[in-house]
Specification:
The protein has 450 residues and is of the alpha/beta class. The chain is 39% helix and 21% strand. It is built from 17 helices and 19 strands. A nine-stranded mixed beta sheet has the order 9-10-8-7-6-5-4-1-13, with helices on both faces. Helix 12 runs antiparallel to helix 13. The chain is globular, with a radius of gyration of 21 Å. Keywords: 4Fe-4S, Cytoplasm, Iron, Iron-sulfur, Metal-binding, Oxidoreductase, Porphyrin biosynthesis, S-adenosyl-L-methionine. Monomer. Belongs to the anaerobic coproporphyrinogen-III oxidase family. One of its GO terms (molecular function) is coproporphyrinogen dehydrogenase activity. Involved in the heme biosynthesis. Catalyzes the anaerobic oxidative decarboxylation of propionate groups of rings A and B of coproporphyrinogen III to yield the vinyl groups in protoporphyrinogen IX.
């Protein structure tokens, strides 16, 4: 690994490219009427994905970058669920009936903050309004500290097929610094209850770059997590943006590792997981050899969406809840972020769409290139450009960022195909960014918003 490459590209603040264009490009020109038209145009026989956002937690983890609200009371949650159910009925009434569901994901916040009976009632409504098959994948994000035996059983009864557990770090010093005390025993108990309830596919989230974190503590956490044998890991770098997420001001910036230390931590976790028998998937996911992610990667069919690397091939995503983002063939649509504003829109009888983005042909082409780079570390730019009727010359030969990456030895270009070199895959986002036509403008927009 070259120190100059790490210095130049390793600390760049770049998108994770779970979508293209990225969210800073969204604008209020896409409103509830536009999104309603997009929903009505969804082909009847086409599988779609659903995303449901539950924006509540019992306590704030100081590293968190999600849209969430802290509540000790159940009343705000119950009020929100009533609005969410109204939105589900409203959307279902605007789409060809019944839409077949390929994948569904509950995100947060903490989705399992709701009571077991409320979860089952929500699942009943969804199955009433949409068409679920035996192969429909249903995933739920879980805080192991809050998971009860009764909720685990409800998840199994509701047909959940995958659980994503937040672990982050088992180091007590790190946990105190991020306001998330979670023992290995709590996590192991959650895994046990889920598996006993029939939720057999488990994912752990780990984070590096946290305050007081070291290479040794990252390795210790990874080894403890491996002992519980989840099917997948997602390993993310902590993004410190206290001007945008005010609660991150509780984190001591002097305790944060620098770029070189962050990279060493990421490499240590990766090496530990690979040594334990996990295959690396793309930039930051790991899976056991029998997992569908591995099969998709081997077949060149790995995809990337808002949940990261996935086997979800649905072209349409319908987002429910405050701040939820939907995607159709025409573009992206995002709901109002504030739960109160979201609720007022739904109560008025209209969709809660606040902003979005209408895709152009060039956007779709660039999105395909970026997705293949992020998934495969290579992209046949010439072939993708030709499929969209674009000349690849401007994308490759007139691309100064790409030329600089090639000069640094990060990638090779031959016959219109870009290949990221094995030992430089950690900067693949910089390669993807070379095809982002809006990056500088998006960064300025985000800076102003922050």
């Amino acid at each position: 690994m070259h120190a100059s490459i790490l210095q130049k590209y390793g600390e760049m603040r770049l998108p994770r490219y779970t979508s293209y264009p990225t969210a800073p490009r969204f604008a209020d020109t896409i409103d509830h009427q536009t999104y309603s038209e997009w929903l009505a145009a969804i082909p009847r026989a086409q599988d779609v994905s659903l995303y449901l956002h539950i924006p509540f937690c019992r306590s704030m983890c100081w590293y968190c970058g999600c849209h969430t609200t802290i509540t000790r009371q159940d009343e705000p949650i119950l009020d929100y669920l009533a609005v969410l159910k109204d939105e589900i009925r409203m959307v279902a009434g605007r789409t060809p009936q019944p839409l077949p569901i390929g994948e569904m994901h509950f995100g947060g916040g903490t989705p399992t903050i709701i009571e077991p009976e409320e979860f089952l009632a929500l699942m009943y409504l969804l199955r009433e309004q949409f068409s679920f098959a035996g192969s429909t994948g249903i995933a739920v994000e879980i805080d192991p500290r809050r998971l009860t035996v009764e909720m685990a059983e409800a998840l199994g009864a509701g047909g959940v097929t995958r659980a994503s557990l937040g672990v982050q770090s088992f180091d007590p010093v790190v946990q105190k610094a991020i306001n998330r005390i979670q023992s290995e025993a709590q996590t192991a108990d959650a895994v046990h209850h889920l598996r006993r309830s029939g939720v057999d596919n488990i994912n752990f989230d780990l984070i590096y770059g946290l305050p007081h974190q070291t290479v040794d503590s990252c390795i210790a956490t990874a080894k403890a997590a491996v002992a519980m044998r989840p099917e997948r890991f997602a390993v993310f770098g902590y993004a410190h943006i206290p001007s945008f997420k005010k609660h991150q001001r509780m984190i001591d910036e002097n305790a944060l590792p620098d770029g070189a230390a962050r990279n060493a931590q990421a490499m240590a976790i990766s090496e530990t997981l690979v040594a334990a028998g996990y295959r690396q998937i793309g930039l930051d996911h790991f899976a056991l050899p029998h997992d569908d992610l591995v099969k998709a990667q081997e077949a060149g069919k790995l995809r990337r969406n808002f949940q990261g690397y996935t086997t979800d091939n649905c072209e349409t995503l319908i987002g429910f809840g405050a701040s939820a983002i939907g995607r159709s063939q025409e573009g992206y649509a995002q709901n109002e972020v504030a739960p109160g504003l979201y609720a007022r829109h739904i109560a008025s009888g209209r969709l809660a769409t606040a902003k979005g983005y209408r895709l152009t042909g060039e956007d779709r082409m660039r999105a395909d290139i970026i997705e293949r780079l992020m998934c495969d570390f290579s992209a046949d730019v010439a072939a993708i450009a030709a499929a969209y009727g674009f000349d690849p010359h401007r994308l490759i030969d007139q691309n100064a960022k790409l030329a600089a990456l090639a000069e640094y030895g990060v990638l090779d270009i031959a016959g219109g195909v870009i290949q990221v070199r094995q030992d430089h895959r950690f900067v693949v986002r910089a390669v993807a960014a070379a095809f982002d036509a809006y990056l500088e403008q998006s960064q300025r927009t985000h800076s102003k918003a922050a």
